[in-house]
């Protein structure tokens, strides 16, 4: 049985009351080595912890294009050891793995 038109909206409106916004908090634990991917076409940073198979920390951070440089600079200051890579699509992240510890990667010390 399907409801269409204004009658459907009226019937469904009774089920859809009592909505309230909730703030959801979560915490991501990272080690001290990271690769920060700037996914330009999606205005997103992907942050991957090293070694990935041990820590499995992977997080997305969405940004407004006007705030990109400020956020990027702040992230690179906060992360002690990091590598920054610009890409166009999330699938390109796979081209840079496996995400190993610094003895196998060229990691820049962002705090020096």
Would you summarize the structure shown here?
The protein has helices at residues 5-15, 52-55, 68-78, and strands at residues 33-39, 44-49, 58-62, 81-87, 108-109. By secondary structure, the chain is an alpha+beta fold.
Structural description of this entry:
- With about 110 residues, the chain is of the alpha+beta class.
- The chain has one domain (about 20-110).
- The protein contains three helices and five strands, in the order H-E-E-H-E-H-E-E.
- It has a five-stranded mixed sheet with strand order 3-2-1-4-5, covered by helices on one side.
- A hairpin with a 4-residue loop joins strand 1 and strand 2 (about 45-50).
Strand content: 15-25%
Radius of gyration: 21 Å
Largest sheet: 5 strands, mixed
State the secondary-structure class. Answer: alpha+beta
Mean pLDDT: 74
Head-to-tail CA distance between termini: 66 Å
Question: Which descriptors would you attach to this protein?
Answer:
112 residues, alpha+beta, five-stranded mixed beta sheet, 3 helices, 23% helix, globular, disordered C terminus
Give the SSE layout.
Elements: H1 5-15, E1 33-39, E2 44-49, H2 52-55, E3 58-62, H3 68-78, E4 81-87, E5 108-109
Parallel strand pairs: 1-4
Antiparallel strand pairs: 1-2, 2-3, 4-5
């Amino acid at each position: 049985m399907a409801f269409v038109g204004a009658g459907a909206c009226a019937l469904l409106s009774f089920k859809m009351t009592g909505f309230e916004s909730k703030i959801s908090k979560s915490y991501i634990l990272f080690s001290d080595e990271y690769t920060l991917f700037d996914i330009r076409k999606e205005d997103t940073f992907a942050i991957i912890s090293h070694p990935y198979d041990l820590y499995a920390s992977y997080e997305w951070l969405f940004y407004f294009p006007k705030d990109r440089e400020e956020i990027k600079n702040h992230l690179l200051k906060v992360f002690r050891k990091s590598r920054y890579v610009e890409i166009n699509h999330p699938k390109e992240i796979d081209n840079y793995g496996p995400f190993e510890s610094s003895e196998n990667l060229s990691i820049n010390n962002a705090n020096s």
